[in-house]
Amino acid sequence: MGPSAPIVQGEAEILLAAGDASPSLGLALQAVFSALHARDEVAAGDSNSSLLARVAGGRMWQILAAGSILDEQWRVTPDNLEQTISYCLKIVSQSSRSSYTTSLPSSPPAGNGSTTAFQGEPAFDRALIEAVSTLGRLCWEARSGDRVSRVASPLSKLFQRVVATNPLSPGTGLLLVPLLQFFLDHGDVVMYDPEPAVQTFFKTCLVREYSDKQVAKAALLFLSENKAKLKALSAPLLPRFFPLLLKAVGWGNDPELDKAFQGLLPVLLGPNSTLALFRAIVDLPTLVLALEHADRAAKDPEKMAALMEAAFMGGMGDVSSPRVTPQSPIRRPELRSAALEALFAELARDENDGVLPKAWASLEAAAAVQKEVRGSPSPRLLHALQLAPPLLDAYITLVLETSDESVFTPLGALVIQSVSALFPNEAFQAKVLRICSRFLLAAFQRHPPLLPLLKKPILQTISPPPTSPGQTELAVQLVWAVGEYHMGGSGEHVAARQVFEALELLLYESLAASSAVHAEKAEGTRRPPASDRPPLTSPRLLCVVITAITKLANVHRELASRARVCVAKVARSRQTADAHVWRKACECLGLMQEPAVCAALFSHVPQAVVSRAS
Questions:
Q1: Terminal C-alpha separation, the chain
Q2: What is the CA radius of gyration of the chain?
Q3: What is the enclosing helix (H) or strand (E) of 562?
Q4: Angle at 338 (CA atoms; ends 337, 342), nearest 5 degrees
Q5: What letter does residue 205 receive in the DSSP assignment?
Q6: Alpha carbon 226 to chain centroid distance?
Q7: Cα separation, 52 vs 584, whole angstroms
Q8: For the chain, which terminus, N or C, has the lower number of CB atoms within 10 Å?
Q9: Mapping DSSP to helix (H, G, I), strand (E, B) and coil, where does residue 118 land?
């Protein structure tokens, strides 16, 4: 397709030479680059054929690779390459005088190879992006220091000019990405450190444009393709700015963004980011909820003013501050609870400072999230619920492959604590719990001494008895590991005794609750409402508890007599105990009465414990 306004023969080249970045020139340049992308054959009489033939020299690697049908005039020559560089540099130079650089295109061209304006955006800006990309590729292909030196200064000035614009134009990231690519590829040739430029891109551009899907996609693909170079920079920028990337992924709702972010996981892990990244992935659905909440608030001036006031006070909702009065808009019910605002503010941060969010610890925050998600979830939220589990699975696999017990210990504690603070969706919680259990069991298998180190969160999980399905399933996995690996080995007497006592108490409390229920049924008395009575412990958990007590007593002999008494009480409670629990108690009691058999079954010591003891 040709431009909307006719251009006489050679006008585009005249405009370039004269330094006139007019709409006619923009449309002509857009026609040139669109034809190159579409690999269309252009007639010799076309008004843009001369310029197209020269610029084609810079794009010839694409044309030849695709088996173009273009005729002899398209063959690359040194003259074409030189003309291409000159024209592209003129486009860069004219951008400083063009009023069009205030509105860069944020959408792809309409149709396939269409030369129409980009949804009303000036075509010259798309030509500027293409010119920068062409210059970078020509320098990469030539490996010429002279060519890089010639191009570097104009591109550096263009970068500084663009990032100094306040406010940044929509779609600015589409221009900054090819500029950053040039600095990464050729910074060593011209002694240019790309690190400040990449950091500026994160802090001034992506922080504002992460919600633009085209900018987010260009940024994540750029980061994914250059992760090795970015990792080599002196400052770990990707581990620092991963929350911003996760915001782009959550808001974008695009499989390409998901794939690009997952490919970045190896370089996102670092000393100050491994734990925070786990929590951020688990909280991805809540983050999307926060972004949607902020988007709605942005359309309401009063709500936005309240959010800005809360953010200024710190903590998004410090209602104890004397500045917040009962009539203040932040106290209005439609602005949600202060705890929810605090949680949303923590999750929606742009940089990782190594500090884990603490707002989930508030019961009010969890209840507010539960209230917020009533009704049908949005497409973005559904996408986040589906994306977070595979991302978490890839993260766990990577941690297990690359980390050691120095990471497993704090991460294990965080995993155990996080089960009680998950987004309220049953399918999502089940998937996350299954992945977390896989990590814990694999970590304990490799390093059984982790068990006594994680004694506190383990005790908090099983005492008081868990009530929710997720906490119960986690308790089953932890209690099984306690018994299987003898709470870290025969040398961990104190930790083993403390966990044994918690398991013993769990059994006794369960027996008491079962006896009370049985007595009520026998007497025909009316039971109190479910909310007023303690829930019965899961029979599956109790069976695992009895087995773990037996295994602990077999290795830690000082616990043997107490274990026999405890299990015997369950075995004598046939009328009140669950049938499965009663049978398991009888089996384990019989084994404990035959020490030789019990030792043969339960005295295997994991290799890691043997190595530690030696």
A1: 78
A2: 32
A3: helix 560-571
A4: 120
A5: I
A6: 18
A7: 82
A8: C
A9: strand
Mean pLDDT, the chain, whole residue set: 77
Residue 216 CB neighbour total at 10 angstroms: 26
Pairwise CA distance, residues 37 & 19, whole Å: 25
**In the predicted model, is pLDDT for residue 202 greater than 60?**
yes
Whether 493 shows a pLDDT value over 80: the answer reads yes
The C-alpha angle 221, 223, 229, rounded to 5 degrees, equals 135
Please answer whether residues 88 and 134 qualify as being in contact, where contact means their C-beta atoms are separated by less than 8 angstroms.
yes
Beta carbons within 10 angstroms of residue 468's beta carbon:
13
Q: What is the pTM of this model?
A: 0.78
On the 0-12 / 13-18 / 19+ scale of CB atoms within 10 A, 612 is: middle
Locate all alpha helices (DSSP H) within 164-273, ordered by sequence: 172-186, 195-200, 207-209, 213-225, 227-231, 237-252, 255-268
- Please determine, for residue 197, whether its predicted confidence score (pLDDT) is greater than 80: yes
310 vs 321: CA distance, rounded Å: 10
Contact indicator for 278, 411 with CB cutoff of 8 Å: yes
With beta carbons less than 8 A apart as the criterion, state whether 571 and 584 touch: no
What is the spatial distance between Cα 175 and Cα 6, in angstroms, rounded to a whole number?
28
Quote helix, strand, coil % in the chain, to nearest 5: 70, 0, 30
Cα(216)–Cα(494) distance, rounded to whole angstroms? 53
> Could you report the per-residue pLDDT of 375-419, keeping only the tens digit for each?
788 999 999 999 999 999 999 999 999 988 899 999 999 999 888
Give dist(CA 123, CA 27) in Å, integer.
Answer: 5
What lies within 8 Å, CB to CB, of 273 at 6+ separation is: 236, 239, 240, 242, 352, 354
Tokens of 246: 């996760």
